[in-house]
């Protein structure tokens, strides 16, 4: 397979994953979040019911424990575009994928070993 | 906050080492592969796969990057780019703890993934089984280290944190190992020449 073809197929696969991810991705808390909610009593360790109030309280408690209350408004918070629904999520992940593709090309180009 | 700073300093040291690796060993022909791997890893990290217990997990990808590019520093290099975009543009993972995330996912994922892969491959001889096991181990050990860091920070009790993080990520590791092995197979089939150790891949 030629390099150009390999790259096009690779980018296509990444974009397909980016487009389907908002529809297929599980909305359940990930491993770290699940452990966090379980430790703070908002969710059973091996159960699935999440107590939203307890979860919110747990988040406040952690801010108090660590003293880290730094926050800022991201451009596309939680892989969404404010004011848009599923289409916004697809667009967000696609834009992110293209951003990292370009960033990867630029940073790799700058830092690669020169051929000559 | 002091703890986060320590992790940032360690992360910056590994980023510098990763840049040194790139300057010495990452040839210009690898540039497109690095970019495509970074984009693919970013996309697949957005795809949370359900596991039991009302929980989900997703790929990290450092082990795959390290195996394909033949250096643990490739995992650091690519995961740092992914974590930067996730943190700054999407508010995912955060800025303060990005140093810790770079260590846990990029450094641990890259080193456990790469050295786990080469060691297991030399023992059992099958590259895809080695990639699966190394991918699993890279994710599991990252999660264990994360639990220790959270215990030091005072947010997770050590024993409970280790039990829960270990249990969930022992399962999520199967996702990491599976995708690592499948992606390695696809890349090796399409372009055996661009793998860092082409002779070791029989496909």
How many domains of chain A, as an integer?
A: 1
Overall residue-averaged pLDDT value of chain B: 95
Order of helices and strands of chain A: HHHH
Give the largest interface.
A-B, 70 and 70 residues
Strand order of the largest sheet of chain B: 1-2
Assembly state (oligomeric): heterodimer
Quick one: biggest sheet of chain B?
2 strands, antiparallel
Q: How widely separated are the two ends of chain B?
A: 48 Å
The tally of structural domains of chain B comes to: 1
Helix/strand order of chain B, N-terminal first: HHEEHHHHH
Q: SS-based structural class of chain B? A: mainly alpha
Give the averaged pLDDT of chain A, no decimals.
94
Biggest β-sheet strands, sense, barrel of chain A:
none
Uncertain stretches of chain A: none
How many helix segments of chain B? 7
Could you characterize what this model shows?
The complex is a heterodimer of chains A (116) and B (203). Chain A is an all-alpha fold and 116 residues long. Chain A is built from four helices and no strands. Chain A has one domain. In chain A, helix 1 (3-24) packs antiparallel against helix 4 (86-111). The longest helix of chain A has 26 residues, at 86-111. Chain B has one domain: Orthogonal Bundle (Arp2/3 complex 21 kDa subunit ARPC3). With 203 residues, chain B is mainly α. At the A-B interface, helix 1, helix 2, helix 3 and helix 4 of A face helix 1, helix 2, strand 1, strand 2 and helix 4 of B.
Task: Provide the fold topology.
The complex is a heterodimer of chains A (116) and B (203).
Chain A: H1 3-24, H2 31-39, H3 52-66, H4 86-111
Chain B: H1 2-25, H2 31-45, E1 49-51, E2 55-57, H3 62-69, H4 72-90, H5 98-124, H6 127-153, H7 158-190
Antiparallel strand pairs in B: 1-2
Helix pairs in contact in B: 1-4, 1-5, 2-4, 3-4, 3-5, 3-6, 3-7, 4-5, 5-6, 6-7
């Amino acid at each position: 397979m030629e390099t150009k073809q390999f790259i096009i197929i690779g980018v296509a696969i990444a974009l397909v994953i980016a487009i389907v991810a908002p529809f297929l991705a599980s909305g359940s808390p990930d491993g770290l979040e699940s452990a966090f909610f379980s430790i703070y009593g908002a969710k059973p360790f091996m159960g699935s019911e999440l107590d939203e109030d307890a979860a919110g309280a747990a988040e406040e408690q952690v801010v108090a424990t660590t003293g880290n209350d730094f926050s800022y408004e991201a451009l596309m918070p939680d892989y969404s575009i404010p004011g848009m629904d599923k289409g916004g999520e697809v667009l967000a992940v696609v834009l992110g994928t293209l951003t990292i593709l370009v960033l990867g090309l630029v940073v790799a180009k700058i830092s690669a070993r020169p051929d000559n | 906050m002091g703890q986060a700073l320590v992790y940032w300093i360690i992360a910056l040291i590994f980023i510098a080492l990763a840049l040194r690796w790139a300057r010495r060993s990452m040839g210009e022909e690898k540039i497109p592969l690095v970019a495509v791997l970074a984009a693919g890893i970013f996309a697949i990290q957005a795809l949370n796969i359900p596991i039991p217990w009302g929980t989900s997990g997703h790929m990290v990808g450092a082990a795959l990057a390290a195996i394909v590019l033949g250096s643990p520093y490739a995992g650091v290099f690519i995961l740092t780019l992914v974590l930067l975009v996730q943190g700054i543009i999407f508010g995912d993972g955060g800025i303060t703890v990005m140093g810790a995330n770079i260590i846990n996912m990029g450094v641990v994922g890259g080193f456990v993934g790469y050295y786990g892969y080469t060691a297991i491959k030399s023992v059992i001889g099958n590259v895809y089984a080695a990639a699966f096991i190394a991918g699993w181990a890279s994710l599991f050990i990252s999660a264990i280290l994360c639990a220790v860091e959270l215990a030091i920070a005072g947010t997770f009790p050590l024993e409970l944190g280790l039990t829960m993080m270990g249990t969930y990520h022992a399962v999520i590791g199967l996702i990491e190992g599976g995708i690592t092995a499948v992606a390695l197979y696809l890349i090796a089939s399409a372009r055996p020449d661009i793998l860092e150790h082409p002779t070791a891949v029989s496909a």
